[in-house]
Amino acid sequence: MLPFIKVDSANPVLVPGSNTFFDPMWKKQIAWENKDVFNPAIVVRNDTVFMLYRAEDTIGKYAGTSRIGLAYSTDALHFTKLKAPVFYPENDAYKKYEWEGGCEDPRIVEDSAGVYYMTYTAYDGSIARLLVASSKDLLHWTKHGPVFAAAFNGRYNNAWSKSGSVVSSYKNGKIIATKINGKYWMLWGDKYIWAATSDDLINWQPVETNDHQPYDSVYSNFNVSHLKIVIPVRHGKFDSDLVESGPPAILTGKGIVFLYNSRNVPSIGDSSLVEGTYAASQALLDKDDPTKLLDRMDTYFIKPEKSYEITGQVNQVCFIEGLAQFKNKWWLYYGTADSKIAVAVYDEK
C-alpha cells in the first residue's frame, strides 16, 4: 500500500475554526475548536466521507479540552463542519475519566449489523485511558466506558492506555471489524504495540505473556511486563522512542497490514531526523495470529516536510489515524503538528 502522495493542492484539509456550542461542563458557550484540530477517524457512508476529528479549545487548566467534531465531504478533500461537537465530556458516569482533559483521537469501525464502534482516549489530567462508544448514525453516541474495565479483575482499568486499532476488513468503503478464530482483535498502545481480544467490541482483554517484557516509566502504575509486545521500538531507527497505532488494521489474505506512528530520538534512533519527529510506517502481522509479526518496513513512508507539519502545538508531527477506500483510491488522513489535518492518497490503479 505505497506510495501515499500528499495532496499539496488541498492540504491542510481541515483547520481550526470559530464554531461555538453550549458546553454542559462550563455551562456557557465556548469556542470548542478554536485552538487546534487533528488526529481524525474516517467513515465512508452514503458516498460521503465523514471525518470525526479531535478539536481543542483554549480554556481551563490544560488550555485545551479535547472534544470530537464531525465534518463531511463528497470529494474527500473539501469538508463541511457541523457547528457543534458530536462527542464530549458531560456530567455523566464517565466524567471522572474525561474531564478536564477531554475525549481524544477517535478510531472507528462498524460491525456486521452496521453499528459503529469508536475507540477513543479519555484524559482526566493524570491518566490516559482507552474507552469505547457506539452509534448507529455517527451523531448520537452511547458511552460504554474503559475497554479494559472488566479484564483480569480490573488490573488495567487505571492503567495508561491509548490508541485502539481494531483489525477489520475494508469492503466497499466500509471498515468492518472482523473476528479471527472467534475473537475480535485490537492493536493498541503508545510505547509499544500490544494486543487485546473481545467478543463484543466493548469489553476487551489484553493479551498477556509469561515471558519477561520491557518496562517503561510511563506505565509505572501497572506491571507492563505482563503484556505481550507485538511491535517493539527499534534502536537506531526512526521508531526508536515509541510506536503507536494508526488507523484500523487491514485484514487481507496475506496478513494484517498495520499502519503505525512512531517517535524518534536521534541519540538512540535515526540521526537524520530531528528530536521528537513523528513519522509513520507499515508492518505485516499473521492473519491467523495478530500477535505474530511477519514483516516490517526498515524506514518510514511519511514524515513532516511541510510548514504546517513542522510547526504547531507539537512540532515535527505527521500522525496517521484515518484511512478510507473511496473512488478507487486509499485516502490517509493525518494530524499535522497536532494543529491541522492533511491527507495523502494511494491510487489502487
Description:
The structure is a single chain. With 349 residues, the chain is an all-beta fold. The protein has one domain: Glycosyl hydrolase domain, family 43 (Tachylectin-2, Chain A), CATH 2.115.10. It contains two helices and 25 strands. The strands form seven sheets. Strands 18, 19, 20, 21 and 22 form a five-stranded antiparallel sheet that branches. The protein has a four-stranded antiparallel sheet with strand order 1-25-24-23. It has a four-stranded antiparallel sheet with strand order 4-5-6-7, with no helix packed on it. The radius of gyration is 19 Å and the shape is globular.
Key words describing this protein structure:
mainly beta; five-stranded antiparallel β-sheet; 349 residues; 2 helices
Structural class by helix and strand composition: mainly beta
Strand content: 35-45%
In percent, how helical is the residue content?
Answer: under 10%
Number of helices: 2
Estimate nothing, just give the exact number of structural domains: 1
CATH topology: Tachylectin-2, Chain A
- The dominant shape is globular
CATH domain class: Mainly Beta
Encode the helix/strand succession as letters. EEEEEEEHEEEEEEEEEEEEEEEHEEE
Name given to the CATH architecture:
5 Propeller
Beta strands, count: 25
Rg over C-alpha atoms, rounded to the nearest angstrom: 19 Å
Q: How many angstroms separate the termini?
A: 11 Å
Mean pLDDT: 94
The main sheet comes to: 5 strands, antiparallel
Outline the low-pLDDT stretches: 217-222
CATH superfamily: Glycosyl hydrolase domain, family 43
